[in-house]
Design goal:
261 residues; mainly beta; Porin; 8-stranded antiparallel barrel; two-stranded antiparallel sheet; 8% helix; 66% strand
Length: 261
């Protein structure tokens, strides 16, 4: 799938260079929006322990797909019905609860920079333009910060990094032309689940005292593998765990302005 993405990217670049002399064919389109998670998975556990020491655990389902979105797309109008787009964006996710106990919560907050390309198909309907787009999205950098305050007298922070996957994205939009400008609104969907690559504990406090220096390398660092995790007896070697995928898929609404060049 990555080969398809880069082939499409190369085709866009070639077309952009070949048609550079016709500036009216090109545009930029900054936009902002908000996304709601389209898929949930079991991220952790909610523990409802009572004073009589009875415990009741239940799976805590959540998503990392809720996010504020910013994008900057550049496009080439092949003709009045077809266009190619290449865009760069940033997604700042809201906090999601992973684990919960009577002492507190463990939350996760993800941020990502991404690149996407799309084929746009549209038609004029009266004074507006209706279009749809579909393409690929590839996260360039994804990091999730986990804050654990679910234990009594202890708090922990951990940073999770991810592999580089290929996802799919699409949207249905309406565009209102006003001279060289057009205002648009879109309903979009992104299908993206990302496999964990590594995790590092960056902060550990017990009763307000910094205990991070007390941790060995194997205690602080996790490498995620797809099969047969091997853990060494050496404290200087990262520990290994089986990789899991976190859900970043979402539905989004976006508004922006399209500027002809």
């Amino acid at each position: 799938m990555k080969k398809l993405f880069f082939a499409a990217l190369a085709a866009f670049t070639i077309c952009f260079s070949a048609q550079a002399q016709d500036a009216k064919k090109f545009y930029i389109a900054p936009s902002i929006g908000y996304a709601l998670g389209a898929q949930t998975s079991a991220l952790g556990v909610t523990n409802t322990s009572a004073q009589n020491n009875s415990n009741m655990d239940k799976a805590n389902y959540g998503t990392l797909g809720n996010a504020f979105l910013m994008r900057l797309n550049g496009g080439w109008n092949i003709n009045e019905n077809f266009a190619l787009e290449l865009g760069f964006g940033y997604a700042a996710a809201s906090k999601t609860t992973i684990n919960e106990s009577r002492f507190g919560k463990t939350t996760a907050k993800a941020n990502q920079f991404f690149l996407q390309n799309s084929v746009v198909v549209g038609a004029n309907v009266g004074k507006v333009r209706i279009y749809t787009k579909a393409g690929f999205i590839i996260p360039l950098s994804v990091k999730t910060v986990i804050e654990d305050a679910s234990s009594q007298n202890a708090s922990l922070k951990q940073e999770v990094k991810y592999s580089t996957p290929l996802g799919f994205t699409g949207a249905l939009g309406i565009e209102i032309p006003m001279g060289s400008l057009s205002f648009f609104g879109e309903l979009g969907h992104t299908s993206l689940n990302i496999r964990r690559k590594s995790a590092t504990i960056t902060e550990l406090k017990v009763s307000g005292i910094d205990r991070l220096p007390d941790l060995s390398n194997s205690d602080k660092n996790i490498d995620y593998v797809t099969s047969n995790p091997q853990n060494s007896n050496s404290p200087n070697v990262n520990s290994q765990e089986l990789a899991t995928k976190d859900p970043f898929s979402n539905f989004s609404i976006n508004i922006g302005v399209k500027i002809g060049l």
